[in-house]
Amino acid sequence: MANIENFATPSSAMGALKRPVVTKGWREWVFTVDHKKLGIMYMATAMFFFVVGGLEAVLIRLQLALPNGKILNADLYNQMFTMHATTMVFLFVMPMAAGFANYFIPLQIGARDVAFPRINAFGFWALLFGGLFINLSWFLGGAADGGWFMYAPNSGPIFSPSHGVDFWALGLQIAGIASLTGAINLIVTILNMRAPGMKLMRMPIFTWMILVVQFLLAFAVPVITVALFLLSFQRNFGATFFDVAAGADPLLWQHLFWIFGHPEVYILILPSFGIISEVLPVFSRKPLFGYPFVVFSGAAIGFVGWGVWAHHMFASGLGPVSVAVFSISTMAIAVPTGVKIVNWTLTLWGGKLWFTTAMKFAIGLIVLFTIGGLSGVTHSVAPSDTQQTDTYYIVAHFHYVLFGGAVLGLFSGFYYWWPKMFGKMLNEKLGTWNFWFMVIGMNLTFGPMHILGLQGQPRRMYQWTENRAGEGFFNLAFWNLIASIGSLVLVVGVFLFLVNIFITARSGKVAPLDPWGARSLEWMTSNPPKEHNFDSIPTVHHLDEFFHRKYAEDANGQMQQIATAEEVLKQLEDNADAHIHMPSPSYWPIVIAFGLPVTCLGVIYSIPLAIFGGLIILMGAFGWALEPSTAPDTDFDPPSSSNTSKDVVHVG
Amino acid sequence: MNHIKNASDAASRVNMLTRVIGRLKPVILGTAGTMFLASCATNAPQDTWQPKGPNAQKIDSLQKPVFAVAGIIGLIVAAAVTYSIIKFRDRGQPIPKQSHGNPALEITLTIIPALILAVVGVFTFRTVFDLNKTSDTQMIINVTGQQWWWEYDYPANNEYGITQPIITSGQLVIPVGTKVMLRETSRDVIHSYWIPALNGKRDAVPGRITINRIEADEPGIYAGQCTEFCGLSHANMRMEAVALSKEDFAKWVANQLKPYAAPAEGTLAKEGETVFLNQCTRCHQVNGLTRADGTPVIAAPDENVWSGAVPNLSHLMSRNTFAGAMFDLLTPECRNDVWKSDSASFGAKYLAGVSEPCLNQTDLRGWLRNAPAKKPMYANPAQLAATGGKYRGMPNLGLSESDIEKLVAYLLTLK
């Protein structure tokens, strides 16, 4: 105890720099280590890149609306589809999920912050700088043009002579550091910082899915890190890892990329599965059907997801044994995925359904993701896949999975948690328009791609020609045009969401404490939560703890309300912990993160600059290690604390 | 009491489900009907659902039932969700019992899809090994990809009268009913050879040889396209497989082996030969072509082009596409005449090659005038630092209009 007390006392003598004590203006955000602020910054960054990636997608669709499109030339088109995928995967869906995780994991498990708040801040800045670094290439001679899969040897210095691929590889390396630190941080947080009584099998399902994702990240990111290092060394320092003339085998890249790339698919989709597994029970007024099945199927996907990577390579000539084995393992992973769909449907079954916008997006996910899942099963059949792979059928498939699945889930999360984050209700009426435009737009855009692909239109073509378009109902010209029109409908849908944010910020309805009749711990806080989240850490007795504090079964087996949300919150306030200690802001996370793009820029252009960047990182690391653990005057006692409650000490 | 209630509940739910499926019958039949129509309509030339040979047929027989089952499962899920939305919407009913699930139902609903997939798995397994069988191969053709065209090399083969290797590009000519093995590789980046009507795709990987088998049932022309992203002109890297009856194939072989016939003195074509010798033979080979002094011309593409190869133009006019099958050598009318002819008359039409009235002058002249303007390539000397000055594609040769006139006349003699 004495030790902890000492630790918590600021020792200004030791610090290289005092810790910032700013609580206002831009510095409040730039130096923050608060998981909620970082979560919001992650989301804002991701939203920005969503718009960027979306505009890239619209350019692609405009180019392909008519035969022999002239809006983009071949070179620019290749950059466009490479950056569209890179942006959407690494700079939109992943950071958006990270934003949700950052904001809601501590709240859902009854903690006051994550385990390593400064590392959390560092992760955000690294992601932001990594994303900006990749996009810097647009202005410095052209972006990467090898596709997001960046197959060797086409990504090598001979076939892609601009610096685009250099920026891409190094920028992803920076973003990868963010993902890795975030993964370790959240794993430690979830495993160690749960409220008393919250056994693993009482954890909210979103927390569970995020936990699985962090393990996937922790093991998958190192693989792509290795691959990117090989690529960077080949391009920047003359190594020959993928140089066929020097005896290399280009399939090495494919294996490395997809051993990362397939778990990555689950990294993208599982957070959204988690979100709708929270949303569906709340708006069905009954618990998630088969919680343990959903948990274990999520974990099963996390394991089997490592044994299916070669299904991306069925056409590459692996030989029949590998192809057959990976075909079967790919079919196997459809089973736990199917379990989830069944459970969501059965959660609705027998419920008392309330169709809020969040609920609409969640139900949209069930149906649209199922389409993507089933088209996935059709190409787990390897011989069938050799007809479909690298055609628009695959583009249709993964957009149903990633847009119909991941993106709809994230939007469900926005509408569900917006009142929690900002204390205001997003406009439900506009939300309905937002939903229908997105769902109709997405089906118009990606639905026809099934036809295009089965009619033999390959992917990654900057133009298509009437010679190969055919006639009749399934002609490519008609369906390409429909897909392009659909993309504009989709743009309207996303635009309506941005309008909704704007309107809500200006004049939105103030959110009641428990607007949805929610079930989990994050709703046992004010809207938005106080900086320390909980006045007292609740003791957990149930899965869906909050619900069970509000409702109980009466003698007839009917659920009856026994307490209001206000009463539940009051109870926590009345038992507030004394002397709550929150992590202090810090200068160093952003400093170290800034050193990374400087170093990488140096790797491309000039080694002295790389050394300078390295020095920034080194200096930042010393500052980080030596700064005092807390700023003075940051301890505080919440109102009505009592002497009996325990000390809570968080150390940055 | 409770037990009975639950049991009757379950029974009524089963009934409900049966009714739902009953109502969906027309939808299911409708989908099946659409699928059937899809296989009959006149579709795009690269339609993956219209097999024209046994390999593609095996894939098709495997995939169509999978599509059907997937479609039905999708409809069941959509129906269950729709039903729940309508049936269980909030009508002021009390908060439902907080039931956490039903393990027996869960396990059943896990085992059923697992069983369906197991059945699919068994057939997949069989088909994978079936398609990889090579022991009964009747003919081997080497297929080499490079940016952005395909080269075919027919090794000598007495059975088919191929007494010397034949090298051609763009259009792969095969005899019908023959099990042809393609040995694929690449000279630069990864490409993928795909003729959807004959088989699935197989990557051509530099430093490796991959095997694919094709066989066509009927004479005809089958469109295909490179399907592994291979850089700037990936979209323009096309090809066709041309299947000829055995007799017609023998004629084709004989024509390919026909010795070089120089144009008659004093013709425009003869002047074209001189232009060709001066401008084109640095890279393009025409077998049997000799200089004025009688020495044979050996092209040296490896000195000028990064991949080290360019299309061999011997018998160019026996093909009907050029520049990586991006352009037709035939005018649209003549092309339609060949492409849309029935299998009985196809062979003769194809073997007729390109005659002057049928020649697509626009694209051929445009190509000779400024190739990089017609097809994106790395042909600007300012962009060639990475390849040590070697081209990836054909540069603009700056030919005069009269040179182009002569060259076209000459190329027309390469039948």
TrEMBL record, chain A:
Residue ranges annotated for the Cytochrome oxidase subunit I profile domain, each copy included: 20-541
Region annotated Disordered, chain positions: 632-652
Any one Gene Ontology cellular component term annotated for this protein: plasma membrane
Any Gene Ontology biological process: oxidative phosphorylation
UniProt membrane topology term: Multi-pass membrane protein
Transmembrane residue ranges: 40-64, 84-107, 119-140, 167-193, 205-231, 251-276, 288-309, 321-341, 353-377, 397-418, 430-453, 473-499, 591-624
Location of the protein in the cell: Cell membrane
Chain segments annotated as coiled-coil in the UniProt record: 555-582
Keyword tags: Cell membrane, Coiled coil, Copper, Electron transport, Heme, Iron, Membrane, Metal-binding, Respiratory chain, Translocase, Transmembrane, Transmembrane helix, Transport
Stated name of the protein: cytochrome-c oxidase
Organism lineage string: unclassified sequences, metagenomes, ecological metagenomes
Automatic annotation (TrEMBL), chain B:
Residue intervals of the Cytochrome c domain: 267-415
GO MF term (any one): oxidoreductase activity
Ranges that cross the membrane: 67-86, 107-129
Known EC number: 7.1.1.9
Protein localization: Membrane
Residue ranges of every copy of the Cytochrome oxidase subunit II transmembrane region profile domain listed in the record: 40-135
Main location: membrane
Gene Ontology CC: one annotated term: membrane
NCBIfam families (alphabetical): CoxB
Protein's recorded name: cytochrome-c oxidase
